[in-house]
Amino acid sequence: MSKMSRLGHALYSGQVSIDFVGRKLLWYALSGVIVLVAVLGLTVKGLNLGIEFEGGVEYKVAVGQGNADLDAVQQVREAVLSSDIPNADEPTVNTSGDDSIRVTTEPLNNAESREIAALIADRTGVDVDRDISSQLIGPSWGEQIASRAIQGLVVFLVLVVLLIWGYFREWKMSVAAIVALVHDVLITVGVYALSGFEVTPATVTGVLTILGFSLYDTVVVFDKVRENTHELGRTHKTYAEAANLAVNQTLVRSINTSIVALLPVGALLYAGIFLIGSGALKDLALALFVGMAAGAYSSIFIATPLLVQLKEREPGVKAGDARAVKHRSRRDVDPFANVPAFSEDMPIHDDPGAAPGDAAGVGPGGRVRRTGGSTALDVREAEDAEDADGSDDVGDDNGRTRAVPTAASGRLTAGERTVPARTMSDTSSAGRPQPTRRPRSQRGKQ
């Protein structure tokens, strides 16, 4: 068994426990700092909206296989900046694969667009008609995409609330799941703002995709929480302890699932940035990578601790937690409270009313109370010794006698428990009476 498998078994059985719920303030503070940085990036630096959202002119310059490098990008940038056109003073120039360069500017008229294309052709030495293509994109298309994306996001969140409430019958789980989703979206959008990556329709697609991944991870943990908290009275755990056990039980699964999902997305991100250059692949991969990582984090460190915090305010949960604490304190006082009464080697609880040094006492009805760590098996051995002597009394260390019940006397008292008295029969180890074999001289002739 590997170390990860042993760790998963220990976490699932409760032998090893990480206190995720008890340290919720630490996770809240960490997430608060990350979200604050993301919001500051959005407000101070803002998003680098693509041409689809702001409108403008897009140029594709074919420079030949393997010629789309940093030097070519710099040449194209200088060519555009050499013009006196106001809307072309801040162009966005980057590679698109290894054979072309992509240039975007603010909206231009036809004459300005032809002038920019001629300057690029002169600087790079390409044919202006054959190797340079331009396209005017209006901002209305991007606005339409953004509007539909927002509508889809609102509908998705409403459906999430209804579905989680209908499945778990618990609206607090819906609230915790929505908070985790908002947390993931803010972090993803903040990374785009801080990194300066261009926001394109592929970015919007990636953001909407990560909502499903984050929700799936959260629902898996919540399902385990519901299973562990179904019979709290029987397990004698508080709601927080049962929920924390659920997070530990799904921890290895969450880590494995996240790693398996992030590896191919990371490969796409690497290919989009370093091999292909700018394009929809890079924008989609970045949103997926950041969103999946944030979703795996929020399902463990945010959603479940927040759910516990909301549930602990309910009167029923408060009463159940109080009973669990009371049972735990009673168990600590009596270490054998959970030992079955029929156990052969069960230590019988000391009589709290017996004086120090008393080896035994007689309870009501002639029943024996043993002290000093005696067991039910000890009582039965004393009965067997009494039967061998033909005596009904057993002496104690002080010379007094006490009645020891026989098989007919019923049950033996051990504190608040009773131990069934059992007679010892002369049988074999199989527990069945054995036939008596007569001598050969006494057998009749056949």
Automatic annotation (TrEMBL):
InterPro entries: SecD/SecF_arch_bac, SecD/SecF_bac, SecD/SecF_CS, SecD_SecF_C, SecD_SecF_C_bact, SecF_bac. The gene is secF. NCBIfam families: 2A0604s01, transloc_SecF. The lineage of its organism: Bacteria, Bacillati, Actinomycetota, Actinomycetes, Propionibacteriales. GO terms for cellular component: plasma membrane. It is a multi-pass membrane protein. The chain crosses the membrane at residues 25-44, 149-168, 175-195, 201-222, 259-278, 284-308. It is found in: Cell membrane. Part of the Sec protein translocase complex. Interacts with the SecYEG preprotein conducting channel. SecDF uses the proton motive force (PMF) to complete protein translocation after the ATP-dependent function of SecA. Gene3D superfamilies: Multidrug efflux transporter AcrB transmembrane domain (1.20.1640.10). This is Protein-export membrane protein SecF. Residues 131-312 form the Protein export membrane protein SecD/SecF C-terminal domain. Forms a complex with SecD. Part of the essential Sec protein translocation apparatus which comprises SecA, SecYEG and auxiliary proteins SecDF. Other proteins may also be involved. Residues 381-396 have a biased composition (Acidic residues). Belongs to the SecD/SecF family. SecF subfamily. It comes from uncultured Nocardioidaceae bacterium. Pfam families: Sec_GG, SecD_SecF_C. One of its GO terms (biological process) is protein targeting. The keyword Membrane applies. It comes from the Bacteria. Keywords: Cell membrane, Membrane, Protein transport, Translocation, Transmembrane, Transmembrane helix, Transport. Residues 336-446 are annotated as: Disordered. Residues 435-446 have a biased composition (Basic residues). GO terms for molecular function: protein-transporting ATPase activity.
